[in-house]
């Protein structure tokens, strides 16, 4: 833990991944764990971990990278935090992100712009940009992120590390500051596959405080890490290798396909015909749910309150006007619009119907295949400030969003380099609650 803080102090001035450190408490915890001793039953004991700043941590500032929560010190821990403590892991600090996890570059953070670990003129991806860059730059071995439309997989891809979004319901969302409740999942970002599986072991499981948490058994995700994937059946969707994908990214994925074949798997072309509607569906559903979830930030109970007020109405309006950033306001307006009477049927209801079609595409392929692979992102990391148009930014998630809409698990693992010698991420998508098979294939590939 001491070494971790030394690494953070040396490297973070350049990367700017951390929003808050937990140094005093972390060192105390480390001492207690030293006294207790580390056993094989607790392989994660004493391992430092960084936490995305939308996961609430008792007495440790939690802002979701928003001005509206600039002074929020939670009075309770998220379920995943309790589980990390049960594993004797040591939370060392909170990591930067896009405000309320809305974005794909960590540039919408109110506080600072995190840099890519490989090239500090590039974005780290987002919204879990701090979680990815801190791990990839060697500051911490492990972090937690959240993924609503790609926010674990895209930054993992951009920084050349392993990031997994579990099946919806696998990990409790209790204490995750809600963005889009039907899509959000917490998951681990690590430097290798085995570490990732170990952390998922620790944070998974039924939680009665999250009504959508699933009562399915949690296997040991490290059990299948044998390197043997002979006979595994893998599909690669033709829609994932089209025009919009950078040629260097396509090449890296083709090389990965060849590797899987050498390892004894079969890889066939498959189709996810409705995935092209994913981005449109996602921005209606995610923004609608966000507009409802974010109503609680009203300047009354906690967080930022405007001083510029004459009456109660002003408290609400001015606190929200001054406290939320541009991207968050854009989503609240879009969501409120698509939920309003007269538009509901045309937008929100229709989006739900198309979501079902997207889900059925995956079910169809998984009737015949164990896994789906493809690129995690159409491009490698882009430059800081390079994308200013929101729709161009939204299109970056075209390959990750369908996975959230379908509720299935998805991960990104490094698979070589593309343009400007930046890392390319291979996306592996599994059947619901079959993260074990994804880890098995990823481990053999790694
Ligand atoms: N980039 C997507 C968005 O802006 C996804 C974000 C996420 O997964 N939290 O909504």
Automatic annotation (TrEMBL):
It comes from the Bacteria. It catalyses: L-glutamyl-tRNA(Gln) + L-glutamine + ATP + H2O = L-glutaminyl-tRNA(Gln) + L-glutamate + ADP + phosphate + H(+). GO terms for cellular component: glutamyl-tRNA(Gln) amidotransferase complex. This is Glutamyl-tRNA(Gln) amidotransferase subunit A. HAMAP family: GatA (MF_00120). The lineage of its organism: Bacteria, Bacillati, Bacillota, Bacilli, Lactobacillales. NCBIfam families: gatA (TIGR00132). Heterotrimer of A, B and C subunits. Gene3D superfamilies: Amidase signature (AS) domain. It comes from Vagococcus entomophilus. GO terms for molecular function: ATP binding; glutaminyl-tRNA synthase (glutamine-hydrolyzing) activity; transferase activity. Signal peptide: none annotated. Residues 1-437 form the Amidase domain.
């Amino acid at each position: 833990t001491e070494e971790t803080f030394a690494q953070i102090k040396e490297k973070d001035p350049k990367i700017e991944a951390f929003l808050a450190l937990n140094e005093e408490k972390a060192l105390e915890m480390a001492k207690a764990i030293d006294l207790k001793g580390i056993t094989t039953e607790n392989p994660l004991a004493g391992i430092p971990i960084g936490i995305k700043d939308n996961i609430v941590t008792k007495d440790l500032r939690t802002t979701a990278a928003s001005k509206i929560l600039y002074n929020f010190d939670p009075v309770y821990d998220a379920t995943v935090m309790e589980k990390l403590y049960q594993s004797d892991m040591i939370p060392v600090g909170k990591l930067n992100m896009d405000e309320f996890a809305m974005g794909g570059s960590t540039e919408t953070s109110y506080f600072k712009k995190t840099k890519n670990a490989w090239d500090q003129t590039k974005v780290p991806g987002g919204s879990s940009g701090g979680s990815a860059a801190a791990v990839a730059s060697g500051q911490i071995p492990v972090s937690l992120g959240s993924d609503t439309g790609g926010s674990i997989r895209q930054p993992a891809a951009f920084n050349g590390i392993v990031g997994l979004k579990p099946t919806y319901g696998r990990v409790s969302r209790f204490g995750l500051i809600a963005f889009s409740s039907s899509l959000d999942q917490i998951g681990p970002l690590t430097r290798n596959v085995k570490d990732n599986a170990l952390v998922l072991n620790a944070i998974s499981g039924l939680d009665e405080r999250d009504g959508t948490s699933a009562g399915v058994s949690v296997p040991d995700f490290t059990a299948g890490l044998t390197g043997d994937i002979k006979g595994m059946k893998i599909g690669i969707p033709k829609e994932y290798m089209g025009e919009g994908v950078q040629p260097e990214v396509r090449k890296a994925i083709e090389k990965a396909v060849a590797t899987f074949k050498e390892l004894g798997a079969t890889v066939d072309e498959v189709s996810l015909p409705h995935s092209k509607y994913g981005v449109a569906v996602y921005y209606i559903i995610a923004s609608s749910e966000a507009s409802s979830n974010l109503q609680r930030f009203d300047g009354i109970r906690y967080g930022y309150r405007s001083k510029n007020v004459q009456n109660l109405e002003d408290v609400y309006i001015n606190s929200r006007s001054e406290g939320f950033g541009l991207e968050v306001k854009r989503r609240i307006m879009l969501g409120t619009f698509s939920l309003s009477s007269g538009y509901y049927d045309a937008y929100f209801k229709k989006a739900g119907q198309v979501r079902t079609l997207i889900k059925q595409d995956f079910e169809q392929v998984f009737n015949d295949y164990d896994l789906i692979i493809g690129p995690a992102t159409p491009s490698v990391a882009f430059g800081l400030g390079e994308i200013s148009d929101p729709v161009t930014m939204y299109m970056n998630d075209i390959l990750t969003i369908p996975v959230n809409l379908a509720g299935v698990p998805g991960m990104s693992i490094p698979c070589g380099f593309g343009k400007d010698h930046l890392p390319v991420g291979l996306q592996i998508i599994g059947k619901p609650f079959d993260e074990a098979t994804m880890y098995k294939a990823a481990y053999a590939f790694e």
